[in-house]
Amino acid sequence: MVREFKKGEVIFYEGDMGDTFYEIVDGVVGVYTDYEAPTEKKLTEVESGHIVGELALVDAYPRSATVVCLTDVKTNELTVEDLMDYFDKEPEKVTFMIKEISERISRLTADYNDAVATIGGMFPKDSDRKPGLAEKIKLFAQNYKNAIKTNKISRESLEEIVQTGHEDGFGKNVESYSKGTIIFKEGEPGKCMYDIFTGSVNIYTGYGTPDEKLITTIGVNKFFGEMGLINNSPRTATAVVNADRTTIMSMYMEDFEELYEKNPVKIEMLIKHMAFRVRRLTDQYVDACKLIYEVSEAEASGNVPEELIKEVRDFQSQY
Question: Helical H runs in 11-126?
Fold first, then answer.
């Protein structure tokens, strides 16, 4: 549905429940936390050709920011139910949507990694924190205070919907691999993402080094490697086949329009998976900010309990 807004008008407010997202067709919007409060912060500007509110692709979810029109703005307002009709009318929007969500995953991953690094610098053994850490702590503590106002819904709903039948329908670039085959290596540029039809894949950091760590095992009917869709972004981990006769489809950005035309259910599953990744990353980021906030508050009071220090140490040991 086409909706038009005047300059200064709010499209949606931080904390509102949202079941639609918006493609900015014309104009520019600003994305704010604490809009019109003394602590207001402008996070970014979004121009025509991009989307806002993409968490609605998963389900109704509290808005994490306020979106305000910086100019007169024309949008397409869409629900998940509208999505396939939207693609039917403009198949090229399939690639656009996947690219938009991929870039959102990339930005969230960078924010989360920054928060993880901040926690990693807390309570060093020599008691001297690195320069700039104090400002980082303040930043993430404030981000958490902003986040808790969005009245987040129960974590029970964070369980990803089980997708079945990834082998069904049209597919391309499908190959079978033996156990131990490396699909991609940490640090190398990515070019595609993957869909597992049979078997499983292990994801490691530091693979083949003394610091090797198994992050997760990904099984049948799951996607992985989304970051590879974004401008040849370097892989953040190594993917290794975990079972003989593992069958995987490689998915390139230039294939998505054809894939939608021949197997639209696959694209619908993929977009919902990627939107779920955005949501899960958002919550992981908020959890990290929460820990930083608790340390900040405890240090300000002059009393950091041992159990909080242990929580930080436990977090650090995971990374």
Answer: 80-89, 93-120
Residue 9, token pair as written in the block: 């008008």
CB of 192 closer than 8 Å to CB of 228: yes
CATH class entry, domain 174-251: mainly beta
Q: Are 67 and 29 in contact (CB under 8 A)?
A: yes
CATH topology agreement for domains 2-78 and 174-251:
yes
Q: Is 245 helix (H, G, I), strand (E, B) or coil?
A: coil
User: At residue 260, what is the residue type?
Assistant: Y
156, two tokens: 């029970």
Is 69 within 8 Å of 4 (Cβ atoms)? no
The answer to whether 34 touches 100, Cβ cutoff 8 Å, is no
pLDDT reported for residue 154:
41
Name the pTM for this structure: 0.80
- Rg from Cα positions in the chain: 21
**For residue 302, what are the CA distances in angstroms to 108, 122, 171, 296, 299?**
32, 15, 60, 10, 5
Beta bridge partners of 247: 176, 198
Tokens of 125: 């053994």
Cα separation of 140 and 118, whole Å?
9
User: What are the residues facing 10 on neighbouring strands?
Assistant: 68
CA-CA-CA-CA torsion for 281, 257, 46, 7, nearest 10 degrees? -130
Whether 198 shows a pLDDT value over 90: the answer reads yes
For position 66, what pLDDT does the model report? 92
* Rounded-to-integer distance, Cα 271 and Cα 277, Å: 10
Taking domain 2-78, whether its CATH number is 2.40.37.10 is answered by no
Q: pLDDT of 18-68, one tens digit each? A: 788 899 999 999 999 888 888 788 888 999 989 898 777 666 667 878 999
Q: Where are the domains of the chain?
A: 2-78, 102-157+273-317, 174-251
Find residue 52's DSSP bridge partners: 22
How far apart are alpha carbons 279 and 55 in whole angstroms?
Answer: 6
